[in-house]
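Researcher: I need the complex structure. Ligand is adenosine-5'-triphosphate. Inputs:
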Amino acid sequence: MLSQQILNGLVTGSVYALFSLGFTLIFGVQKLLNFAHGATFMAGAFIAYYCTISGMPFLLAIGLSMVATGVIGIVVDLVAFRPLRKRGNAEFPALVSSIGVDLVLISIAQQVSKTQVLNFPFGTFPVKFFNFLGLRISLLQIVILATVAVLVVLLIFYLKKTSFGRQVRAVATNERAAALLGVNVQSVFLQTFFIAGALAGLAGVLIGLLFNSMQFLMGEPYMLRAFVVVVIGGLGSVPGAIVASLMLGVMQSLTVAYLPSGLTDAIIFTLLFIVLLIRPNGLFGDANAVAGGTRQ
Amino acid sequence: MINLYYAYQPIIDFFLLSVGFGYSQQIALRAGVFSIATAGFAAIGAYAVAILVTKTGFPIVGAVVLGMVIAGGAGLVLSLPLARLRGAFQAIATLAFVQIVISLLLFAEDFTGGALGITGIPRVVNTGVLIFIVAFVMYVMWSIGRTGLGRIFDALRQEESVAASLGVNIGRYHAFAFILSGAIGGLFGGLQSLYVFQIEPHNFGFAFMVNVLTVVILGGRTTLLGPIMGAAIMAILPELARPLAEYRPAVNGVILILVITFLPNGVGDEIVFWFRRRRHAAAAANRVKVKEAKNAVTSS
Amino acid sequence: MPSLHLEGVSKHFGGLKAVDGITMAVPPGEITGLIGPNGAGKSTVVNLISGVLSLTHGDIRLGGASISTDRADIVARQGVSRTFQNIRLLPEATVLENVMIGFHRREQSGLMANLFGLRAALREQREFRDRAHALLERFGLDEYAEFEAGNLAYGHQRRVEMARAIASEPAIVLLDEPVAGMNDVESDELATIFRELANSGMGLLLIEHNVGFVTRLCKQVYVLDSGRMIAAGDPHEVTRDPKVVAAYIGTSKH
Ligand SMILES: Nc1ncnc2c1ncn2[C@@H]1O[C@H](COP(=O)(O)OP(=O)(O)OP(=O)(O)O)[C@@H](O)[C@H]1O
Ligand SMILES: [Mg+2]
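Model: Output:
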């Protein structure tokens, strides 16, 4: 029973990872919080749903939805972030304008879906279960775990080994210096937003499949989870986000199973709060990132 | 006139409550704290009043005052750990605070009624009461603005290191800002309880947070006029944009983006700044004239 | 008025010894100079004294009591004031407001008086306003009182910062390159003000690249190079010291 809960938690946690990676990547390069990330996730699920019911093959629908949410990411950067970055300290204004984009996307989705809960048609994904060492695992769960693992490995490879990855890390470390070295900062931003959007979109589709229910506000709880993940893993840290997502997924599935219902959120957010206080740079980040040693 | 009032009464009351919550949000932002905790403070005030009044028969005025004190205390408690955090981290921590409050309200069903909330709260607050209390809060905000406190808040927002170099205890003044934000948020939360008859945790979620933030972003973060303008626009807009009623969140979103991009100080603050600049320009022109007159006298 | 003493003060940034075991004094009623080539560690000294940075070694005392672990605001409240090399004003506030915040240390009225606009608080504000106007006049800035500080010319911004720093009549004022970028007339005007302040009993620490300016004003000059104190004493002698000449020539790009 316990191991079954852990397995289920890992599956949910891996989707959290997919969702949170983009969020933390954007924070890493821009030091800005993208509140539209939850709505991008929801858009991914919606686009895949409408493509599927209009007869498109499911895989194609997923691909299309990822491209579309990637483009949404780019639009977020162009509309909400870029004009503010020009003005200097954009931390708070960007939070506000990304909430603006979030509202627009949610409002459109609400009208399109007429506030209904959507379900993928039966058979969109084969329902199949395996029994394995006393655990019950569905084909969908296996596919999710495998997909996320492959994407995470690809992303890490991309960031560590390619020239684009070097540019991303240069911008994350010091935007001004990177620009002086000839890195096209704007294009790095656009690419990270595209990747972040596409990953969020895919996460939306996977969650839509996993719980077979989608509605226009579905992004909100995931957005809040992403805050927990990125704080625990260290804002801007890719490996931190992955570990923290899996931890959060497992923790959540255990608290739901073994503690009085309704306490899960209180525990998760109290944990977030405590981590922020003790180690604002995350459990896996540098505890003393402030260089120079200021007096407190 | 009277008929007009009855027709628009709900809008006016909504406007007054928004102004109150707006000041709670504004005082934090003015002091350079990226707090979005107002929703949590409002929830605390609202539930404190609802529980005290419906379950213990506490006198209503006492309940409102106590709700305000509890929410102000929550602000103080919140400010202590937050002293080390800045910017995005403050925003996330205060967001977590709101989530904790909401999830505890959902959990403690015996006291709070869980997701169904509390009903049967006496409806004793009317437009007159709201106007009176908004006026009182405005007086306090006005006083802050013309004494040293407002200047310190402004300094903390613009350049913390300067404030510290002049002897400002940053933690202490951030705590004041949190206490004020908490007390004002709790006060209006309590009033909302006594206005709407029924409250539930969901009232104080993400949508509440966005609305309060919108009021202050639209209106302005530093002037008395800010939240009034912001709340007025929020109250009147749906009336003007009837055809777009279904897309109201989208309209709000577009307005947020446009205002923060092109009018970052907010409509209310910009109006006040414009008048201020005009007054100063006139004063400067006057000084030049006086000087010229003096020169003319001495040279003749 | 108390004097300021640094004893064996060091500041390491990782492997870099930005300040390396320096000992110096800023006595009241005098202007003390601190010179040295770019990157010598002068601003770091100011940051150490004013409580922005923590010390690696050593002690800083103000009139006998150690302030070396006090937070910046506590140092300021004990009467140590400063300006910043890269000017830091409150850009959205008016010039007058910028100076008025300088009186914070002298504020007596309590929180309640501020919240409810009680007479005590308002009277205090009026007094600060009058004194701020007087200061602005002294710095030749009165006609800019209602300007947004961020829109002022560079030289004027520097002067606003100085007026703010001395508003609360601190015991010690640390001036980090206060006349940088000013012409001779302007810097002479400021020199006069500096002398007046010293005569009134304040202790000034003047950081400046213009050696002539320092020589004219200071009784005592300290020379930093790569974090180490390479000379100290009478300005005329110090500037002839071969080590000092070498330090300047060695790093000069001209
Ligand atoms: N916060 C910091 N972290 C790391 N190194 C620093 C920091 N502050 C200063 N330094 C380094 O310490 C050294 C001394 O710097 P400082 O600013 O004190 O020099 P300075 O004498 O004021 O120079 P200048 O005349 O250019 O103003 C420099 O090498 C600088 O790069
Ligand atoms: Mg310097």
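Model: Summary of the prediction. Residues 287-293 of chain A have pLDDT under 50 and may be disordered.
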